[in-house]
Design brief:
Structural class: alpha/beta
Distance between the termini: 23 Å
Number of strands: 12
Helix content: 25-40%
Largest sheet: 6 strands, parallel
Strand content: 25-35%
Mean pLDDT: 95
Order of helices and strands: EHEHEHEHEEHEHHEEHEEEH
Radius of gyration: 19 Å
Number of helices: 9
Low-confidence stretches: none
């Protein structure tokens, strides 16, 4: 079976978990290179043990391989801003897992099909991947005036990079709930929980509706979207039945949809409680798979 050669740029935890996800999936991608800048990093060592070609030359090492068509950038926002034009010039598609957002936001269950001709897409944030589909599910039935999401994640699953960029991740998530989810306005609130044993990722979504809606249709839409996300994130689920309640809001008493969601990781590299990290790599793997399949259908040509 013909496959598209891909590389992971960034041999940290995210890149390493993504490596295992690509290797366990018999799809349209072939992991041809694991690239980092620290030859002693665990990701490069693990890749070498699995006989995956590696390089410690970072982006330069990637660009030396002319067969690579897709690169997953799991470095940093600053690094991706430098990588993006070089990848574009080389005709390589970039799946950006950083907050750089050079390309448009993508949630595989919602809008990936709209962007398969582009050369750079952005994976938003962990809470964006988890909550945007739920806001979208409500808004496609009943227009959402305001959405508020509260993402609670284990402190053990939040690395220094995320802590340093928490404002950017929060803003990115709110922007995705508006731009993709369809909410008129949105707010995202992260909660880093230090409990032991570590808790799984939990999300609470409030979607204030502009007017009364068909509750059965709204709830059915939510269940359909959850099933779509579960196709690539099996541990994504509702914690209880969503419901609509009338709440006091700055705009008067309005119907509000309340959704409780939980994300359990697959345990490929991260522990199962780190669903916030797992949903990013699982969504990125799905994006890469769809791009690879699309390239194969076109004969490997990027528009």
């Amino acid at each position: 079976m013909e496959k598209i050669k891909v590389a992971i740029l960034g041999s940290g935890n995210i890149g390493t978990d993504l490596m295992y996800k690509i290797l366990k999936t018999d799809g349209s991608m072939e992991l041809a290179l694991m690239a980092g800048i620290d030859p002693e990093s665990e990701g490069l060592k693990r890749a070498a043990e699995l006989e995956i070609p590696t390089t410690a030359k970072g982006i330069d090492g990637v660009l030396e391989n002319r067969d690579i068509r897709i690169v997953f950038d799991a470095t940093s926002a600053k690094a991706h801003l430098a990588h993006a034009p070089r990848l574009k010039e080389a005709g390589i598609i970039a799946v950006d897992l950083t907050p750089a957002a050079v390309g448009p936001y993508v949630v595989p269950a919602i809008n990936l099909g709209d962007h398969l001709e582009l050369d750079n897409v952005n994976m938003i944030s962990c809470s964006g991947q988890a909550t945007t589909p739920l806001v979208y599910a409500v808004n496609r039935i009943a227009p959402v005036k305001y959405s508020e999401i509260i993402a609670t994640i284990s402190s053990n699953s939040v690395g220094p990079g995320t802590r340093q960029n928490l404002d950017e991740f929060t803003m990115t998530t709110a922007n995705a709930c508006q731009g993709i989810g369809g909410a008129e306005t949105a707010r995202a609130i992260p909660v880093i929980n230090s409990a032991e044993p570590p808790i799984m990722m939990n999300n609470t979504v409030y979607a204030v509706l502009k007017e009364e809606a068909d509750e059965a249709a709204v709830l059915n839409s939510i269940h359909e979207v959850v099933a779509e996300v579960q196709r690539y994130v099996p541990g994504y689920r509702l914690k209880g039945a969503p419901y609509i309640d009338v709440r006091h809001t700055p705009w008067g008493d309005l119907p509000t949809v309340i959704i409780l969601n939980e994300v359990e990781g697959a345990g490929d590299f991260f522990p199962a409680y780190a669903g916030n990290l797992d949903i990013m790599t699982a969504a990125a793997q799905q994006v890469g798979e769809q791009f690879a399949s699309h390239l194969l259908k076109k004969g490997g040509v990027i528009a």
